[in-house]
């Protein structure tokens, strides 16, 4: 007796969710999670048991905060948390130099995965773009969730051109190279009207502000946004001429977004 040939059903692939994190990582203040994060995002995150993350320790801490609002789908200890390789943190993964397909095997087996960084939106001024690329290459649906993005919050609050802008990452650490780069960005901004956004490691905030006041022309506008979404958030946008007469100091422990333009 010949049995009919049957084809096993194909596994429906899971989805990759881009999960924003609050902007208080490493800060002395902790935000009210429900004040800075939509409940829909927290509910979706609570239903994920597979994670690709920048740092497992900070991800567990964030998941505990979510659990205080809505129960997690399973205990954190039994979740799968896979960290991005160390070289991705050092060199970045936005140039296509890291193949992240191996991190998405759970999605190919039908499980949804969350991608998360330590603060803000993963893959925006943070690692994770290689994971998103890999998901597209593997036919895994990518779903970005709503949450705080420091660059866009800073841009909106700057009063600078929000129709034409560029994020240029970190500026050089060497003092003279940093001044040269600042003047290049200023020239581009004054010529094209394009707002230039950049960030700095918090402990160099004061050094960066001093370099900007020293290097930029008097009428160039500089906006700084510090501690966004925190109760102590500080946003100032004024000309360099005004900055030189201001007594503003920057906390060297709080992330800052800098923006220059006209």
From TrEMBL:
GO terms for molecular function: methyltransferase activity. It comes from the Bacteria. Coiled coil: none annotated. Pfam families: TP_methylase (PF00590). The keyword rRNA processing applies. CDD domains: RsmI_like (cd11649). This is Ribosomal RNA small subunit methyltransferase I.
